[in-house]
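Why does residue order matter? Because the sequence determines the fold. Keep that principle in mind as you read this record.
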Amino acid sequence: MEKFNLETNGYNRREVNNFIQDVIDQTSDIVRKYSEQKDTIKTQKEEIDSLKAKLEYYQGMESKLKESIERERVNSNQMKSLAKREAELIVDDAKNNASRIVNESLLRAEEIDSRTRIAEKNLKVFKQKMNIVIEQQKAIIDQIDDIEIL
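Structure:
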């Protein structure tokens, strides 16, 4: 607290005036600083509000992106599952076709083998008959020499 010197008509005017001027200066500084801070605070509040709005916007985008990613993950899993089932069906179909083809081939091979055996038997019989015919023809030729021509 400031103490003033006493004079005849009260306190020393110069000291009081200096004190008042100091109070005015300090108050002006406080008001100016408050005004500056008020502007700064207002700017900061506006910036905070802007940042909050941007944050909400980006949080919304993040939420939508997470939902999209999850949907795509589910779709991807479904597609993988469908592709796996389709591949299994294709493999099963191929196995069935392969088995059918092998069975048909075995049946044809057996049929060909059977025909081959029959053809071999027929050839053997044909050879035997041809040999008999040739022997008969030979005998006839041999008899021609024995026939007397008149």
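Helices lie at 13-146.
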